[in-house]
Each structure stands twice: as structure tokens, then as C-alpha cells.
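C-alpha cells incoming
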């Protein structure tokens, strides 16, 4: 298992940024690797709500395990989904903007020797996607 963190500042109010990010079915609009995210439980966007995510090469079941409106969101994979993921997204007011701190704990099942390479690759992809999220929320459009 490895961990990494990325940050991005989005020139939009925290309420708007949080509402968009907590709407997990919107992920494919800003994440090049995710094809769809569909709710699989009542009350999407709340603690305990579950989703089925389809990516280019695999699928996972996800759950919102923690949620503090306009402050934090924790998403985890539901076993036996692989890779194992715990993603904690923290939202902070920064003037008229919103700072996102995106922390990942990820177990891709790779040998320990290869974890640094896998971590760098994952962190780079997440950083790129956060840039797409920023572009989409600030300009209303993005190219994946």
C-alpha cells in the first residue's frame, strides 16, 4: 500500500466545488480514466451511499464512508473491489476560491519494489485529473 497527496486551488466558491465533487456520477466529466459512475443505493451523495464505477480497464464498487458538507469527503472501495482505495478529499476556503487536498491510500497489489513507480504514476494521473476539474469548474468546459 502507498499514499500520496495532491492539491489544487479552484477559483469557485467552496459550496459549488463541494457539490460538484460529491456528485460522483460527474467524475467522468473530468477524469479521463473513468467511463461511468452509477449510484447503487438510495440517497446518493450521503454517508453510506454506494456506486459502481467503470474505468477503462476495470470496475469497482465504491462507498462514501464520511462526509462533512463543504469540508471533507471520504470514498472507499467496497471489498472485493480492486485496487483497494481510501480517498480523503478536504475542502478549504481560500479567499473567494477553494483549495482541495486530495489524499490517497492505494493498494494495487504490486510488489513492494514497484510501489514507488506505481505511486508516481497514480499521483501524476490524479494531478492531471484535478487540473481538468479546475478547468471545468472555472470555465465550464474541459478536454479529456
Amino acid at each position: 500500500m502507498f499514499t500520496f497527496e495532491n492539491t489544487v486551488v479552484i477559483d469557485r466558491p467552496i459550496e459549488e466545488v463541494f457539490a460538484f465533487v460529491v456528485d460522483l456520477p460527474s467524475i467522468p466529466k473530468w477524469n479521463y480514466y473513468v467511463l461511468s459512475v452509477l449510484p447503487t443505493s438510495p440517497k446518493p451523495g450521503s454517508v453510506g451511499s454506494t456506486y459502481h464505477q467503470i474505468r477503462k480497464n476495470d470496475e469497482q464498487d465504491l462507498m462514501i464512508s464520511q462526509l462533512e458538507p463543504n469540508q471533507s469527503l471520504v470514498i472507499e472501495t467496497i471489498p472485493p473491489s480492486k485496487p483497494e482505495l481510501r480517498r480523503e478529499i478536504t475542502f478549504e476556503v481560500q479567499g473567494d476560491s477553494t483549495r482541495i487536498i486530495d489524499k490517497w491510500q492505494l493498494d494495487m497489489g504490486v510488489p513492494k519494489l514497484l510501489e514507488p513507480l506505481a505511486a508516481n504514476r497514480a499521483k501524476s494521473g490524479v494531478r492531471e485529473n484535478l487540473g481538468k476539474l479546475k478547468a471545468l469548474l472555472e470555465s465550464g468546459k474541459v478536454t479529456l
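note: Residues 2-139 form a domain with the Alpha-D-Glucose-1,6-Bisphosphate; Chain A, domain 4 fold (CATH 3.30.530.20).
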